[in-house]
Write a structure and sequence with these properties.
The chain is mainly alpha-helical and 127 residues long. The protein has one domain. The chain is extended. The two termini are 36 Å apart. It is a lipid-anchor. This is Variable large protein. The Vlp and Vsp proteins are antigenically distinct proteins, only one vlp or vsp gene is transcriptionally active at any one time. Switching between these genes is a mechanism of host immune response evasion. It is found in: Cell outer membrane.
């Protein structure tokens, strides 16, 4: 079964909407707890350092591909502008995904590829 580009766009739109709801609720918590500066500071850091970046990245990914038709794997690189626009939409999708991954993993907090290949390397040593 092929994944439609519009389905991917809808998925990232849902992420954007959900993260925006969480951000709005945390804004309310922050307003209600304005007497507690430490709580306010931690929530502000989380909102600006994490949620805001995820919202913007999901929006970029969704906008890059949601109106595109066809399957995700059918992107072709061509000289004419109509096909080039599809390559641009995939580039925007990937840029949005990369930013989300960077925000979630944060620098120096792990290497997803290393974690995956580590068990493979361990298995090779056992043979």
């Amino acid at each position: 079964m092929e994944t439609k580009k519009s389905e991917i766009g809808a998925y990232f739109t849902k992420i954007e909407t959900t993260m925006q709801l969480v951000k709005d609720k945390l804004d309310n918590v922050m307003a209600e707890n304005s007497d507690y500066p430490k709580v306010k500071e931690v929530i502000e850091q989380f909102i600006t350092g994490t949620l805001h970046k995820i919202v913007e990245s999901a929006k970029e990914a969704a906008n890059g591909i949601k109106d595109a038709s066809g399957n995700l794997g059918d992107i072709e690189k061509a000289a004419d502008a109509s096909k080039g626009a599809e390559a641009t939409s995939v580039r925007n999708l990937l840029k949005g995904i990369k930013t989300i991954v960077d925000v979630v993993l944060k620098p120096n907090e792990g290497d997803g590829l290393k974690d995956v290949t580590k068990s493979l390397d361990d298995d090779k040593k056992k043979i």
